[in-house]
Amino acid sequence: MKKFLKITTITGVCLTLLGALTFGIAFGSAGWDVQELSNVKAEQKRYEQKADTTIESIVIDVENTDVRVVFDESVETISLDYSQRFKKNGDPIGKITLNDQNGGLRLIEKTSWTDHVLIWDFTADCKTTLTLPANNVYALSIETDNGDITVRGNGKVSSLSLTTDNGDISTKNATIDCTGKVSLESDNGGMALGNLSAKTIETETDNGNVKILGRLIAEQIFFETHNGNITATAYPIQINKIAFETHNGNITAHLFGASADYTKMIQTHNGDSNIRSEKGGEKTLIAETHNGDIEITFKTE
To answer: For labelling alongside 87, which of 10, 167, 240, 243 has CA 20 to 30 A away?
Structure first.
């Protein structure tokens, strides 16, 4: 039995070394450029809104690509640039469907595990860019499995939903006027918010920092991260109800008004807080952290 285990171990080590040597030779012959090892090619495609097509809602659901949304004052119609990936033999990887019927534009990418068998995907040119006229109003829902989401420019939306499993979300270079709800969600990624005006703003990430870099105006706001800091000190936030929640991280914020304007519910287990729980205000402030400090100040300008 011991002899068999010894032979098996030696064989496993030899195969591992052989695999590493083969990879090194291939990598070296490719000029040490990881993209040259890829057996996947990406082809850029483009959609342009027709003159007689009305679009009020947009859904983008892709998998392994960054998504960029640009509000552009110089354009009058919607355009959408996206990538279709192909195997070396020319077969498409997954299925992409795009339609612009019934007032909606939908781009959906679906793949199965069989699409990724024997695939070395190091394509860096996969991207999705949605360009929108700045003066129209849209309901936007953007989702990517493994990619960042960024929004730029000045735009108007009836609702905004940005979701990624493994990536960052940024609206720091945008000014968004939303008549409904703004929802930002990432499992593993940070968030950076620019100027936002909405009825409700919600952000949630498991592992990442939440940074508010612009002016926020809303009836209610909910910030949540499990492992990360929440920082909102660029401008005082104008709000009726706000909640900060992090398990491992600090909470630092400036709120518009006076401390007496807020009914405060404050809790930290392993950390310090410069404010305490207190009733009486018409507005609501909730700040909770398990391992971290809370520092909230109130300003009138």
So the answer is: 167
What are the structure tokens assigned to 80, written together?
């959408």
CB 159 within 8 A of CB 142: no
* The amino acid at 152: R
Nearest to 244 by CA among 197, 203, 291: 203
> Which residue shows structure tokens 């490719």?
30
Q: Which residues does residue 47 pair with via DSSP β-bridges, in sequence order?
A: 80
- For residue range 259-279, what is the model confidence (pLDDT) as tens digits? 999 999 999 989 999 999 999
How would residue 43 be classed by pLDDT, with cut points 50, 70 and 90?
A: confident
Closest CA to 54 of 160, 133, 153, 150: 133
Going from the C-alpha of 60 to that of each of 136, 169, 291, the distances in angstroms are 18, 15, 37
CA distance 44 to 85: 9
- Look-up: residue for tokens 């870099």? 213
d(CA 224, CA 245): 5
For the chain, give percent helix, strand, coil, nearest 5.
15, 60, 30
Residue corresponding to tokens 């959609």: 47
Per-residue pLDDT tens for 72-103?
999 999 999 998 877 767 677 778 999 999 99
Encoded amino acid at 66, one letter: D
- Average pLDDT over the chain reads 86
Residue 166 CA, chain-centre distance (Å), reads 8
